[in-house]
Amino acid sequence: MSIKTFSKAGVSAIAATVVDFGTLTVWVEVFHGFYPYGVALGAFLGAVTNFLINRYWAFDARHAPIHHQALRYVLVSVGSLALNTGGVYAVTELTGLFYLKSKILVAIAVALFFNYPLQRYFVYSKGIINGKRDQPVTT
User: Fold this and answer.
1) Torsion, CA 136, CA 46, CA 85, CA 24, rounded to 10
2) How far is 103 from 95, CA to CA, in rounded Å?
3) Could you give the CA distance from residue 30 to residue 1 in angstroms, rounded to a whole number?
4) 125 CB-side CA count, 13 A
5) For the range 105-110, what are the long-range contacts, defined as Cβ-Cβ under 8 Å and sequence gap of 24 or more?
6) Neighbours of 26 (CB within 10 A)
């Protein structure tokens, strides 16, 4: 694993997280919306932010057509959305933890064990190079 790529992806994730948490907080605290809907909306807007930063900077993955990467990213994001929304709801309802604390715990787990590996080896992969499949992007 390239520390530089991991670090850049981390910065991208932080930017996306600001958008995600900001959207959730405004949805619940300002608009008094039901928090699972805020989780979903925040995850969507965070995903768009993350995709664009990752493609053009973190993974510098302009080697592939954007629509191919976007389709792969959507597949990963749907899984991430389901894990985040279901996870926050389950942790909040089962433990009585404040929804933002649940969100932090679930978001960290999903980011480390689902999002980053799939983005590195699936979304932004260079494909088949020298007979080897799914070479990760290294910068």
Assistant:
1) 160
2) 13
3) 41
4) 16
5) 107/17, 107/20, 110/80, 110/83, 110/84
6) 14
Q: Report which residue type is found at 67.
A: H
Q: Count Cβ atoms within 10 A of the Cβ of residue 113 and give its class: 0-12 exposed, 13-18 middle, 19 or more buried.
A: exposed
- Phi, psi at residue 129, to the nearest 5°? -135, 130
Rounded CA-CA distance 90/45 in Å is 22
**Token digits for 117?**
């590996």
- Using DSSP, state whether 37 is helix, strand or coil: helix
pLDDT digits (tens, 9 = 90+) for 43-76: 889 989 999 999 999 999 998 999 999 999 999 9
Q: Which amino acid, 26?
A: V
pTM: 0.73
